[in-house]
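Posted in: Structural Biology > Protein-Ligand Complexes

Title: Requesting predicted complex, adenosine-5'-diphosphate in pocket

I'd be grateful if someone could produce the 3D structure tokens for the following input. Sequence and ligand are given below.
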Amino acid sequence: SAPPVQHGAQAGDSSQTEEDETELGKEDESLLRKLIHSKLIASKSDLDILQKDPNSPLFSVKSFEALNLKPELLKGVYAMGFNAPSKIQETALPTLLADPPVNMIAQSQSGTGKTAAFVLTMLSRVDTSQSYPQCLCLAPTFELALQIGEVVKSMSKYMSELRVLFAVRGEKIERGHKLDQHIIIGTPGTLMDWALKFKFFDLKRIKVFVLDEADVMIATQGHQDQSIRIQRGLGKDCQMLLFSATYVEDVMKFAQAVIPNKPIVIKLRREEESLENIKQYYIECSSKEEKFQAIANIYGAISIGQSMIFCATKKTAHWLTEKMSEDGHVVGLLTGDLMIEQRAAIIKRFREGKEKVLITTNVTARGIDIEQVTVVVNFDLPLTHDMKPDCETYIHRIGRTGRFGKNGLAINLIDGNRSYNTMRAIEKHFGRTIEKLDADDIDAIE
Ligand code: ADP
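-- Reply #1 --
Done. Output follows.
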């Protein structure tokens, strides 16, 4: 039975206006992930090989030794704390390092080891006794280029001769100058000017061409054309590689256009999130205050490791943070008005356990996995922009992939008909019961 329709004061509190929070753009989302240094996502799914090269059979390796790397490079890999290749690296690396070089398009979700794979390829093929650009890496933004540079820096720790340069707007180089760095990392526009207009380096001498984050890349006007123009200037023996976190049609079209000559195409299936080990409850409330009271009861009654609370608006999130703090909880607050670096810092603190509760809004938590969270509270249920139940966001908030395995608890706070209906729609969508919990019978949870 549905709770009675609520009118008046409470309606304003739960109305899900986005206020002035802007959603992260794809490149910011990507940068945030890199800044919080997500660990490697171990994948159980199989690798799909969508296109093969009959002349170079695919095989896979289980160790970095098996790759016959230069000793100083192998040392660098181990210094990064990598013990064995990740799932995608197992198959990608032998092919990436094979001679003659093979072109490749590879797709797998963020955090699966793509960057490490292509950085290793560049470092393996570069000849530091030769002072001219030999590897070219395209990234969607300056900040993302810098992140790749960081990986190059750590992995090349024992390659003391290696020189890297960032090709980004603002980097001034005198006309007529010839670059002597080995690896150039930059955004397509600047790289195109450097290579084609100013001829600071010779595209024909590039051995490895990498296009990273193709899906983010194509979201920016002009990047596709610029990338293709750069690629056209490369020599025919240049190894061309493209990486993407998603595999949708327009990304693939672009990939095929920019990586010619029958590349090997590999794809790692995304691990599906599931509600398998999650107990889901709902509590009926009639106001924001009652919702807070419900949370206070729960936190008082059961011992909770780390938890996240999702609010629809920044205003509610701030309000709740204050109430929870007054109640003695150590709370972190993550909202959309913060800079990417600030967000990363808050997420890191929470990960390190400095706060036990993280209160956040819809827009900020995308793509952030925090393993140790065992309780998720939907202070407000997720709605799409057109106010429909947002099942995808719901499962992302509370679902777990195989890698987390642990049991979890989800608590949905309901206030009024609309949120009740939203909850039922979500329940129906996933076919898993969301049980009712009486606010004064919290013990039932355990
Ligand atoms: P992607 O480019 O797919 O997002 P990254 O290459 O950035 O993935 O790797 C994600 C995280 O995993 C990084 O912190 C990276 O240092 C780490 N990592 C990559 N490869 C390995 C490996 N073989 N073993 C352990 N950690 C790894």
